[in-house]
Amino acid sequence: MDTQQISAPLPSPSRARGGATPYSGVVHDNSRHTGRFTVVGNHLTQHRELSLTAIGLAAHIQSLPAGARIGIKDLAARFPESEGRIAAALRELEAHGYLRRSRTRLADGRIVTRTVSCNQPADRRPADTRPGRDCPPHPQRKARPLAPGRPRREAEADDTCPLGSADRTPPAPRREPAPRRERAPHGRSTPLLVPQPAFPAASLLRTAADLLAGLHHKDPRLLLSVQDVGVLAPGVATWLEREVGPAAVEHALTSELPPERLLRPAGLLAHRLTARLPPLPPFRSPADLPPRPFPLQNCESCDRAFRAAQSGECPDCRTDNIHLTVRQL
Known about the structure:
single chain, mainly alpha, two-stranded antiparallel sheet, 10 helices, 32% helix
């Protein structure tokens, strides 16, 4: 019994009590900081929903001085993580209240993004120090449970005070995308604008198109494409509608052209059709108009058509009848 058993296992160590060093897990070797340190709460470092990238990024941002650049490209140049991973981490911090980002327009017209880093989100602050909690609840607003997949920040925004809160930056207004600008044919930035006729008859537009297609006989620089002729034809038809002859329209479009090369002949013609548009013809009263012709009538004897106020015989049949009557006498 007095022989010591060397191969026997050692007894199990007792649990550490008080400030004793534990036998398993992490062991801290702390020293007191006297400068260049940042206080980070355990609610951030031990967050159950944030990723390690987001927690480390939040601690880094809180350690930076005011005015430091924390754009995605700036952070990607500083750390080995990609821009996509850093952008996802920033969205996590913004969704959980550790970052607030808003767009602000400066005095010179530029739009910049303001980023506010919160060392403690509003939902984790003490009730007596949380700003904006003295406001009465909205009578028509009810607390809604957090829907699956809905960010926590949107659910918390429904329960905020309607009078606003000092620590919350109002969200930037959503900017609608600008309408896409339609480009004119041949790469023109603006479409050609010409006067439009009051009654665009097909024959009138055909005459206008023929006039435009023959302008290159007067000046080879006025050779137009099919699309240009289709755009300018209503403007020429407006001139023809105002009792301006084709020769006068052609003279107004081809006279006094600049001697240099024409970069946009269709634009020059559109300008002349608009700037030199003649006035409307003078009003004519019904008395000044020529009399309307008599309607067509069918002759009762030979059945030929003739114009007369009333039906009867044509002039030839009446003349023959008169000759017969004279011979009988």
